[in-house]
Every structure is written in structure tokens, then in C-alpha cells.
Fold F-box domain-containing protein.
Amino acid sequence: MEETTTIALPNWLHLPRDVTANILQKAGPEEVFKSAQLVCPQWHNISMDPLMWRTLHIPSRDTSSAVKNKLANICFRAVDRSCGHLQDISIETFGTDSLLNHIANSGNTVERLRLAYCTDITSQALINAANKFPQLEELEISYSYVSSKDSIEAIGQSCPNLKVLKIIMERRKIKDESECNDEALAIAKTMPNLRHLNLLGNHMSIAGLVAILDGCRHLESLDLRGCFGIQYLGGTRLGKRCTEQIKEFQGPDEYLDQSWYLSEETCDDKDDDPYWDMYCDCGLRESSEDEEATAYRIAIEYGLI
């Protein structure tokens, strides 16, 4: 007769507190609120610890109102539980002005803020919240409408510790070509301590690039892929300066995933887009000496040299 071997299952309640907290963090806020905190008194106690909510990442690409409202509510509750200890927060799609304001008012400990696909957050909301992020070191704004000259200046003036800025924009037409350098000039004037800058898809011209090189002298990496307003830099004095001044430089014409600029929504108006040839055919030309001289003149006019 065969003997039956009994395998003892681990008792999850005997895990060290920090291990349990790590497991709950990996489960994510939604699972914690929905079920994990209800497992036992110990898990509920751990889920109430503000230090467990220092990092808050809630990924989502669902744009339905029901899902966005549910995740926004979860984020509100999670921010409350952090009790002013929040350091790193990343939200996608469900961000709103009221949620950003709630995060800003939760304390001044946020060091990293990521807003992706948050089309319901306005530039004015970021301007209002800027002075409540004095410890901010990293900011990412991806496929959102938060980025503007004024919001960038507000962040630059209120967040002296900012070291990393990432602004990713979908391909879109320029409403006013005279404003194409506004964001670049705002960065150059208010963010001298930046170390890493990613402006994928920005519509700046050579003048904007020169301003950044002059205003952000500590840059270690600069990603300008998709910034086709700058056009071709290879073999020019400005291109040489970029590679000599910055350790990791990615120019406008370097490889970029086509999904970024060939979405169905952004391709409908390609016949009216003056930059379409540069996006699709890489019809890029070298920057002339006159263009570079103009860029330096504009930078001088803005007091950046």
C-alpha cells in the first residue's frame, strides 16, 4: 500500500511584514482595495500603512468613462492612504484636474510624476499644482494636453530639483508656426539643472535647439527624435556641437517607431500637413549656415546666450 505524502502549504500569515507589504504593492492598488485588504486583519493593517503607498503606479489604456471613474476613485483613496508620504506616482488615461489637485495637496514629497494619455488634465491645472511639487525630480507628460509654455515655466520656476523631463507628443499640425519654439525656450530659461531631456515629437526649430543647448548646460542626454522642424543636423556645426556637448544625443532623423506618427487619427489631415513629407519620406535637408546664424540671433534676442 502506497504511503500518502502530505505537503504542508505555506502559511502566508507567517511571512515577514516587509515581504507581505511588497507582495501587496505588486498586486496593485485595485487588487488591494478590492480583495487583498479583506483577507485578514494583518493584511488590512499592512494596507493601511502610509509607507506602503509611497509608490503608486496605476496603468490603464481603457478610455471608457466607467473604467476611468473607477480608477480615479481608487487613486484618490490610495493618495489619501499615503498620508503625505507619496514619492512616485504614475497615472494613465483617468487623470483629471481634480485628481492632480488632490495629489498636489497631499503633501510636498512627490519626486516623480508621470501623466500619460491624460487628456482630461488641463495645462492650467498643472500650473496651479506646480508650486506644490518642490521636491519634484522627474516629470513625464506623454500624449496629454498638459504641456504648454506657461505650464513648463511654472514647473521650471517651482521645481528647482528637476533633473529629468520627458514630453512625448503625438504628431499634430502646428497652429501657429511662430509659437513652435515656445516650449523649448521655456525649458531653456527655467530649467538650467536638467540632466535628461526627451522632447519626442516637439515642433521646435533650430532656434529652439540652440536655446536648449545654451540654457541647459548640464544635459547628459537629449532625445529629439521626431522633431522634424529641426530637420537634418548631420555634418553641420550645430550637429557637431550636439554630439560634443551631450553624451547621449538622438537627433530628429534617428529611428522612430512608425506607430508614433502614423496613427489613423493623425494621418487624416496629411495632405494639409507641411511636415508630412519629412515624416513619411524622410525628405530632410541640411541646415544652412544662414539658418544656424538666425538661430543664434534668436537665442540672443531671448537672452539665452
Remarks:
- The chain has three domains: 13-48, 51-143, 163-305.
- The CA atoms of residues 173 and 273 lie 6 Å apart.
